[in-house]
Amino acid sequence: MSEGTGPGPAIVALGEPLIEFNQHRADAPREYLQGFGGDTSNTAIAAARLGARVGYVTRVGNDAFGRQLIDLWKHEHVDTRGVAIDPDAPTGVYFVTHGPKGHEFSYLRANSAASRMRPETLPADIIRGAQLLHVSGISQAISNSACDAVSAAIALSKVAGAKIAYDTNLRLKLWPLERARTVILATIPQCDWCLPSLDDAQLLFDVNVTEAVLAALHGAGAKIIVLKCGADGCAVSDGKRVERISPHRVTSVDATGAGDCFDGAFAARTIAGDDVFAAARYANAAAALATTGFGAVAPLPRDADVRALLGRS
Ligand code: KDG
């Protein structure tokens, strides 16, 4: 697998990586474990750990955190040819705190290097060479120019005949609901696979029941939907058939990045030839394993772990 030479990646993810500080001990709430996050980076690493040839497209700062991220991707066999170093803006940071309602994110990322992505700076050849582009609502929320870069990347992938996977990843700390809704509803019909969480879809469409959510998403132009329902597993719909996939029983400590792991596993398996239902069953198990450790990246599983969990269920 290549980190910078040889054949280009089959899967390309585009977005913002973050340095993570995770409050990992209930008895020491001011102690933070440093790790890594950023939804699309998590997705890229998850897919790479599961055996896919993956590349990442972003900008990092010319700082210690940017260098740590580049080292991480190299270590994880994620191709870094699409990563640019911005001399004038920092790498983004976020904190994860844990409370009775689950985890909460606090960001230090305004005007970050990744937020300065724009269509003209995209590595067009790398995007055109991939079979699958993965983007998210966070990639679009971080700035107007990054939002335009996502549209440009989608256009490049479409011309190249690649599949496009889209996680709505709605973060209301990054943009207001009305703007998010406008952009997300314009993006959904352009993508082949729509991978929202149930929470996102409920907020976007103001409906609650899974069937109504799936109908609203198809009505908005989604072709294939993989609805991630957190601790309740997921539901897959191709417009003709709906399959509900039950959750796996694991000891969860931190759900940060579980949805991103799902996306990476789904991408890895579809590229390997699985149909969307089989890929979602696999991804559902991978995502469960991602909740068994702290942080978005450290607990991302390997193929043998996922298959062992699938074999136990
Ligand atoms: O899904 C986990 C991500 O949300 C986390 O790693 C941080 O990318 C992040 C974000 O923007 O919230």
Structural class: alpha/beta
Query: Strand fraction band?
Result: 15-25%
User: Can you list the strand order of the major beta sheet?
Assistant: 5-4-1-8-9-10-11-12-13
What is the arithmetic mean of pLDDT? 96
Catalogue the unreliable spans: none
Rounded to an integer in angstroms, the radius of gyration calculated over CA atoms is: 18 Å
Outline:
globular
Q: End-to-end distance, in Å? A: 31 Å
Q: Based on DSSP secondary structure assignment, what is the total number of beta strands?
A: 13
- Fraction of residues in helix: 25-40%
Helix-strand topology string? EEEHEHEEEHEHHEHEHHEEEHHH
* Largest pleated sheet: 9 strands, mixed
Instruction: List bound small molecules.
Output: 2-keto-3-deoxygluconate
* Helical stretch tally: 11
Name its key features.
313 residues, alpha/beta, nine-stranded mixed sheet, four-stranded mixed sheet, binds 2-keto-3-deoxygluconate
